[in-house]
Amino acid sequence: MKAKVSPSQTIPKRRVVAESASWLALVAATSLGIPYAETVRTEIKLPPDALESGGRYRLIVQSYDTLGRPSLIPSGKPRASTQRTVTRADLVGGVRIDLIELGDEDARSERRVIAWVEPGEANLEFDARRAKPTPGSFYGVAPSGKVTSESVEIVLDQRT
């Protein structure tokens, strides 16, 4: 038989703070010696009239600490990057991609996320760290979200 616990005698519950230690941050810090790890959630969209053909496209998403001008793609090394093979229909409906950023510190206030699409498929360079847009690619740039759970929306409405 259990004794009833009055409201004044409730047992305090441990609070879990998601921001303080994610699994990725723990693995990065203990295995790789990297003090900072974060997931940047993105949603990439393309205006319906942007691409004419219904073929397959290579979508590249990268994040950078800072950019000289917000509309230019920098020449430095991205903080995070990935690529995926997509179709025109995927892009018009919106493609969600999570970027895994690893580094020394959180510089969220000045970061930018860049995405572009070009004809072709994702290649063997899985993370697309060295990728740069080809002439005629549709691209978009957006500031990284202020809050970790916030999703960054990028519209590919500019052309290189």
Question: Can you walk me through this structure?
Answer:
With 160 residues, the chain is mostly beta strands. It has one domain: Immunoglobulin-like, CATH 2.60.40. It contains 2 helices and 8 strands, in the order αβββαβββββ. It has helices at residues 23-32, 88-93, and strands spanning 36-45, 56-64, 80-87, 95-103, 112-119, 138-143, 151-155, 158-159. It has a 5-stranded antiparallel β-sheet. The termini are far apart. The model is unreliable at 10-21 (pLDDT under 50).
Topology:
Elements: H1 23-32, E1 36-45, E2 56-64, E3 80-87, H2 88-93, E4 95-103, E5 112-119, E6 138-143, E7 151-155, E8 158-159
Parallel strand pairs: 1-7
Antiparallel strand pairs: 1-4, 2-3, 2-5, 5-6, 6-8
Structural class: mainly beta
**Into which percent range does the helicity of residues fall?**
10-25%
Strand content: 35-45%
Shape: elongated
Summed up, the domain count is: 1
Q: Report the sheet with the most strands, covering strand number, pairing sense and barrel closure.
A: 5 strands, antiparallel
Radius of gyration over C-alpha positions, nearest whole angstrom: 20 Å
For the record, the CATH class is: Mainly Beta
Stretches where pLDDT falls below 50 for ≥5 residues? 10-21
Taking the alpha carbons of the first and last residues, their distance comes to 73 Å
Strand order of the largest sheet: 3-2-5-6-8
Order of helices and strands: HEEEHEEEEE
The helix tally amounts to 2
Count of strand segments: 8
pLDDT average, as an integer? Answer: 75
Which CATH-level-2 architecture? Sandwich
Would you tell me which CATH topology applies?
A: Immunoglobulin-like
